[in-house]
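Task card 7
Instruction: Convert sequence to structure tokens.
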Amino acid sequence: MTARILALDASTYAASVALVEGNGVLRERTVVMRDPRHERLMPAVAETLGQGGVTEIDGIICGAGPGSFTSLRIAASIAKGLAAASGKPLFAVSSLALLIAGSESGPPAGRWLSLLDAMRGESFAQLFEVTAAGEISAASELRVVREEAITALARSVAARTAGRGRELEATPHARGVVRLATHAGPGSPVDLDSWEPDYGRLAEAQVRWESAHGRSLDGRPW
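Output:
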């Protein structure tokens, strides 16, 4: 029996939801997150699930970041709530991997530097390798790089760039879980009590607080 999975990602201000089964996407939605009047992601999840709701899925996959703090928190809260209420397992995948895997035509084989805007003139960056068979695997750790250093970094690792306005025009999309699951699967379920997204950096408010108080928020000295 082929598993039916609900996937969602909100690492940018354009969130996506996809209901996938095997190698196919049954339904998908994309919504704008920065709406001062309405929360759009949960309605999109409900529309994507359809009348059967969570009773007709076998698991949930959530984009784990890096990306927008607020959007990632909303997606994680929805995913954890659905998993807790339904008893279905929740899996987390890198949003930078979903950027590569979620491109509409699929990424050509090769080495790709996946890039997401990190604000402040910086980008989140991670290197991925795509085989001729379409297998996608991480080839480096996540890092934050200055915009002006991206070209040199890509050249140094013999990679092309992927992201908004890059050589491969792409943003993270939930439908990418189909390509990621084809070869390796989503891994092990997360622990609902302890899991939270990887924001990629500290929030500006936390940076200012820790700078003013000379210690981290968890009480440890610098």
